[in-house]
Amino acid sequence: MMLDLGPFSGENFDPKKWVNSVCQARHPQDSVDNHLVDLELKLQMVSEEISASLEEQSAAALLRVPRATRDVIRLRDDAVSLRSAVSGILQQLKKAEGSSAESIAALAKVDTVKQRMEAAYETLQDAAGLTQLSSTVEDVFASGDLPRAAETLANMRHCLSAVGEVAEFANVRKQLEVLEDRLDGMVQPRLTDALASRKIDVAQNLRGILIRIGRFKSLELHYTKVHLKPIKQLWEDFELKQRTNRHANDRSEFERHSSSNDFQSTSSTISFTSWLPSFYDELLLYLEQEWKWCMAAFPEDYKTLVPKLLIETMAAIGASFVSRINLATGDAVPETKALAKGILDILSGDMPKGIKIQSKHVEALIELHNLTQTFARNIQHLFSDSDLRVLMDTLKAVYFPYESYKQRYGQMERAILFSEIAGVDLRGAVTRGVGAQGIELSETVRRMEESIPQVIVLLEAAVERCISFTGGSEADELVLALDDVMLQYISTLQETLKSLRTVCGVDHASDSVGLKKEIGSDKKDGSTARKVDLISNEEEWSIVQGALQILTVSDCLTSRSSVFEASLRATLARLSTNLSVSVFGSSVDQKQSHVAGEDGNEELSLGGRAALDMATVRLLDVREKARKLFNLLNQSKDPRFHALPLASQRVAAFSDTVNELVYDVLISKVRQRLSDVSRLPIWSAVEEHSAFPLPSFSAYPQSYISSVGEYLLTLPQQLDPLAEGISNNDANNDEAQFFATEWMFKVAEGATALYMEQLRGIQYITDRGAQQLSVDIEYLSNVLSALSMPIPPVLATFHTCLSTPRDQLKDLLRSESGNQLDFPTANLVCKMRRVNLD
């Protein structure tokens, strides 16, 4: 058994734990006693070995102590002698420092003089060489050795830079510029021929000549000039095909008229949209060939030469490209096609009245843009080895023909949406004859409800157009356009609601008691109330049912606009993420390439080449636009953010207006029935004497209150269909039930408030009138109880005080039960019944 002495050196060594652990580690067949005996023997043997070793090492250490003491004394003496020696050396260095500083200063002056003399010698040599070169340069040019001429001009340039601005060499400087232009002119035809004939060696030599005299721009110019002509021929091929087709059509037309047979032409004008892909394919193939050739001919410059060629090509055909796009968009609509006009003409106002931008115009524009976007991706792949700034400039040139359209995108989208919404059927309601109001109301509400999803679809299409055409770079303009369009649409709905008020007979709306919590108006609405004798009961209920359907319009507008705004907010948040990664280089996995602005600040960067989409290319060059856009996109991440702030407020206002209109319609019958209650003659009627014991009042409620009660009891049946329409699934059942109950309570509360206001207007009431009124109030209370509504304390006080005999009113008010009454109302009843409480 081996003994591990490691645990014994630990600070927290516990003998008991150690013994227990060793015992647990024994072999199961060994007895504990034998194991402990062996352990004790081993510990004893190890302890003796440690003691013996300690004694031996202690003795050896004691023998080494005197020797170590002698060594320490010797080292101390050596240190003292070394210190004195170092002190002497330092004193000598201080003395030498003063004299050496003067010597070094003198040597520095001598070295400066030497350098100046050498520079003067070299300058004199350059000046002499410049004079010699100036005198022999004509001979070099006469020999026709262009490389030697380039070397001579380069040496002259070097010598001129060495001598500086010396008046004697001013003519040489002018001569050098003329000679460089002359050499450039001599190289040009040879370079043009080499580029056209694909002579790599010759082109390389001529490039070296131009580089030697600092004329790389001339190489770019010549290269672009040679290759621009065939590319422009590719572009002009469209006009050639157009003319060919027109001639063919003219011939066919002539043959059709001259022939007896009814010959129809089979030729048709080729569209720019169908032709553009072939142009892009041929241009891409041409650029690929040039890229491969330049890679071999100009390995140092091909990454800039070929992109420069494409940039110059787009600059040369840019105006024509914009014009063709404009005409192609106009071809999408027959009206503008007939006039040979397009989007830009409509935006400028140079069009007959009534012709507006349509979605088909922009769809045609997007189709062309998608073709260009495909070409741009191919170009990005082809030029992937080029510098990032060069690649950005190239893609910007590719997208340039669409820039004027993108800058006016907000104006285009507004025009489209306003035109499309104007086409939605939102005619206001027209007052019809008796019996037809309900039909007119129902038809108008149906048009309003059907228009909401139509408008939302139009708005969603606008969002898709913005993403497809601008990549989201015009999202800020889109949001403003959507908000304005929604405002216009909701304003139209508001105007339609005003026409519905007339049809419903509540155009001069009353005080809306109960809805606005403004109880009390003693006006008589005889001029505006719908007369019962003119409108049948069925017509009344059809108007009520139609008015209730307006709530569905409000609910639909609120829910649809909320969903659309949430979707728009999600789209803005997604754009925020995508464009932030693209424009500000948020990627941590890819090496970021920074693009410095004009002021040198590297604020904008790209996280990888894959980020170079159309929106990125635009935003990196319009920094103010980018900041404005990203401010909006960052705000969209806040849950409280409203993408359409003005429209959201107007939707809420529309909902309030709808609720007010519906309430006025529902309460109008009650208001009409209760309009003259305070002036009924029965309240002041005197008890009639009879020979027989007859009751002095009717045991039944009067017709005015019974009609109100029947109306309130029938109202839930009218609300049920509306609740079922709102409840499309079981999850909305509770919400629909709450909706119906809420409106039933709202109307019942308003009716009760109107009734109590009429009761307060009674000036005098006899005992007979009080007994009749108590029956009427009791009937209304039963109706409210049937509707599960609490009886208002004021109404209960009216009933109690009116049903109590006149001579017992004082006692009632003074009794304990009088504490449950509303005292202002009780005092009013006493005043009405001429009971003196003093």
Automatic annotation (TrEMBL):
Keyword Membrane among record annotations: yes
Entry's transmembrane regions: none
Keyword terms: Golgi apparatus, Membrane, Protein transport, Transport
Keyword Protein transport carried by entry: yes
Topology of the protein relative to the lipid bilayer: Peripheral membrane protein
Subcellular location: Golgi apparatus membrane
GO terms (BP aspect): Golgi organization; intracellular protein transport; retrograde vesicle-mediated transport, Golgi to endoplasmic reticulum
Pfam families: COG7
One GO term describing the cellular component: Golgi transport complex
Family in the record: Belongs to the COG7 family.
Descriptive protein name: Conserved oligomeric Golgi complex subunit 7
Protein source organism: Ziziphus jujuba var. spinosa
